[in-house]
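Quick one - first record:
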Amino acid sequence: MRAEWRGRADFHEVAEAVGVPTNAIVAAGAFGKDVLVLYGKTASADWPPVFRVLLRRDEGGILQPVGEPEGVPHFWREFRRRLGE
């Protein structure tokens, strides 16, 4: 899997579909027709709880959630561990 850092402007459509500010998006990646989004419900906390949701384009081409968002327990602890902190 290839990863790259992108600016907030690239997440505008995704943030709008999820209903959060662009700076609350942690990551987004396309998997076939779906887009997996990781986000915090607030961008103000240093380590906000992280949620995940799948998005898919509807017949009009608009990204829409597929199912309900789910919490991602211990996301930041695992993130920091993998970074070697």
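second record:
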Amino acid sequence: MTTVESRLDRIEALLERHIIQAEQDRETTKAVVRELVENAENDRQTLIDTVTDLTEQVNHLTEKVDTLADRVDRLATEAAADRQQAALDRQEIRRIWDYLLNQSGNGHTSQ
């Protein structure tokens, strides 16, 4: 074997090792990319699920707030009516009280 042939054999062996290493690197890269894509899809789905859950929670809380607001409005209306009735009751009690005082002061007795 000549020196040239020996050099060519070494170059061929070296190229063959580099080609094998490049193919292995390519397969590893493909596997990593597949895993990254899968993880990204899982993360995306997890994010979608989380946003969906949060949206449902916000909707539920909004319904609760609306219900509470309706109850507060209703209670405020009832309280205003109660205050108005109490004022009328006080006036009526005062009127009766004054009447009774006038009756007692005039010497009239009630039976």
